[in-house]
Design a protein that fits this description.
The structure holds 2 protein chains of 2 kinds. Chain A is an alpha+beta fold. Chain A is 18% helix and 45% strand. The radius of gyration of chain A is 23 Å and the shape is globular. Chain B has 2 domains: 87 residues, RNA polymerase sigma factor, region 2, helix turn helix motif (Rna Polymerase Sigma Factor, Chain: A); 90 residues, Winged helix-like DNA-binding domain superfamily/Winged helix DNA-binding domain (Arc Repressor Mutant, subunit A), CATH 1.10.10.10. About 15% of the residues of chain B have low confidence. Classes of the chains: A alpha+beta, B mainly alpha.
């Protein structure tokens, strides 16, 4: 075997690998989505329709104002909802709402189709129709979306799902963090704003010639929808700190928030070194079974942390609100990112275990 | 790379739209390759996992489209989706691709190899991976599609919409640069 083929073999061997837990969880989600896809395929000609009081109100508004369209949630959006254990539970238990609220402006139509809100997260499904990308935008067109509180403060986006396979009818389902919303209200009043933008390549990036630099500009005024989304107040909260130590590092589980669509765990620790940004790798089980829907990692503060502690919050998009059994959160690794980018990591393996129980 | 018999692969592809086990089998065949391709282009591990999830969810929702394009290989189709999802990721927030300078990236992940070892007998995955990440964008994409994704040159050409000869030219140049960079590093270590 010559040198070059050995280099090629070594290249193949250098490929990073996904974690076993991620691979298993994604398989589970794909199987759920596959099953939902077949259900949807069979029922697409009869889109789901539930006449909630709010949907009825929207329908009246639609009739009076002459805006809106067919009351239904897109098939792809249903697939996303069914693929998320927390949102599928909201769908099943009908705490969600079909909004079908839309606005048309400059030939573009923004439609909010579906939403669900609880103390942890707000999910909004929406579509944008009519966006034809002029040829001069050689970097393509996209939609910049924000959700804001009534006072204009933007909500933190947790995850976005997008299907832009039909550019003339783009479909999105975005999750936002409810931290910062007035959770004492019966509804979450949210302003959804979408700005279509077009981008063009300007040439090599001045700081890095191997990267293309591009600029972009709005294609229209913002499309804005003011939404009132029923807010679930079901929540279980643990704020009594639990401490675990390993590798000479003490870690504190400071807050657990369980809502119908999401469970969040906030852990705090003194960073092992000050020159790195530290996070942790969590694994959560409930009565021995892995809780699905993890993977996100949020910077959090104001959870009772000590001076100098860094806190990370881990959301799991699982429907665990009715669960009364034992929980076990295990942090298996601390990861410190240095200034050199993603590859510049310091990792500390260990076992920080928190066991507790939520009560009704 | 892909050791799966072509005929069996085609059977799985044919069955995938109606048989969840066939789709899941395809998922397991390709998830590692898609993950490696995405990880070479995106820094944050959480983002990589989100993107890989999105790729397979999109593949699932577009399975019917695949059946009408049997002439295209499944791999080309899947990696075209992956490429678009990565592009969406960068486009959505106006991010630029995180490319490290070639030499710097080699130093970042090099875990002190023996200086007298010959390059290809001692090559360490982490160091080589860092070198791949330091390649210019087009070369990096082609190298990762070829060696992480296991695609043939004609499949890469289909994914990128360029000619097969162009793919070969990029590959050849990238391999030369990778080899030279690694040799420079070994020599530098030998002097140290």
């Amino acid at each position: 075997m010559n040198d070059m083929s050995e280099l090629e073999l070594a290249l193949a061997a250098s490929a990073p690998r996904p974690g076993a837990q991620f691979e298993t969880e994604l398989e589970t989600r794909l199987r759920v989505a596959y099953a939902a896809r077949h259900t949807l395929t069979a029922s697409q000609s009869k889109p789901r329709f539930r006449m909630t009081w709010r949907a009825a109100a929207v329908l009246i508004i639609v009739a009076v104002l002459g805006v809106g369209g067919v009351l239904a949630v897109s098939a792809i959006m249903q697939t996303w909802i069914q693929g998320d254990q927390g949102l599928s539970e909201a769908w099943r238990s009908e705490t969600d709402i079909e909004l079908n609220q839309s606005i048309t402006q400059d030939g573009l139509t923004l439609t909010a189709e579906w939403a669900n809100a609880d103390w942890n997260r707000l999910a909004i499904g929406f579509t944008l129709g009519g966006l034809v990308c002029p040829e001069r935008y050689d970097a393509g067109c996209y939609v910049a979306v924000t959700a804001q509180k009534e006072d204009g403060t933007p909500l933190e986006m947790l995850i976005g799902r997008a299907d832009e396979s039909d550019l003339n009818h783009r479909i999105y389902l975005y999750d936002y963090s409810m931290a910062g919303l007035d959770s004492s209200q019966a509804v979450a009043n949210v302003r959804l704003q979408a700005v279509p933008r077009g981008g063009w390549v300007t040439g090599p990036h001045p700081e890095n010639p191997s990267v293309e630099a591009w600029e972009h500009e709005p294609l229209s005024d913002p499309l804005v929808l003011n939404l009132s989304i029923p807010l679930s107040h079901d929540v279980r909260l643990i704020t009594d700190p639990i401490i675990a130590s390993d590798q000479g590092i003490a870690m504190t589980l400071r807050r657990v928030v369980v809502t119908p669509t999401q469970t969040r765990m906030a852990v705090c620790f003194a960073p092992p070194s000050a020159d790195r940004t530290w996070t942790a790798i969590p694994g959560l089980t409930a009565d021995g079974a892995v809780v699905a829907g993890g993977g996100a990692d949020l910077d959090v503060s104001g959870v009772g942390e000590s001076n100098g502690e860094t806190c990370r919050e881990f959301p799991f998009n699982a429907a665990m609100y009715d669960y009364d059994g034992p929980w076990r959160l295990m942090i298996s690794e601390l990861v410190g990112f240095g200034p050199g980018g993603g590859a510049d990591q310091q990792r500390i393996a260990g076992s920080w275990v928190f066991e507790f129980q939520t009560t009704p | 790379m892909c050791e799966f018999p072509e005929s069996s692969l085609q059977q799985l592809v044919d069955r995938a739209a109606a048989d969840p086990d066939a789709f899941v089998a395809l998922y397991h065949l390709y998830v590692g390759r898609v993950y490696a391709y995405v990880a070479a282009r995106v820094d944050n591990t959480n983002d990589v996992e989100d993107i890989v999830s999105d790729v397979f969810m999109r593949a699932l929702s577009n399975l019917d489209q695949l059946r009408t394009k049997r002439a295209d290989s499944f791999a080309s189709w899947l990696f075209s989706i992956a490429r678009h999802v990565v592009a969406d990721y960068y486009r959505r927030d106006g991010r630029s691709h995180p490319v490290q300078p070639f030499e710097d990236s080699a130093e970042l992940a090099a875990p002190d190899p023996s200086p007298d070892q010959i390059i290809l007998e001692s090559v360490e995955a982490a160091a080589l991976y860092a070198l791949v990440r330091g390649l210019p964008e087009r070369q990096r994409e082609i190298v990762t599609l070829r060696y992480y994704g296991g695609l043939r040159n004609r499949e890469i050409a289909a994914v990128l919409g360029i000619g097969e000869k162009t793919v070969s030219a990029y590959l050849s140049r990238a391999l030369s640069e990778l080899r030279a960079a690694y040799e420079r590093r070994v020599q530098a270590d030998a002097r140290a």
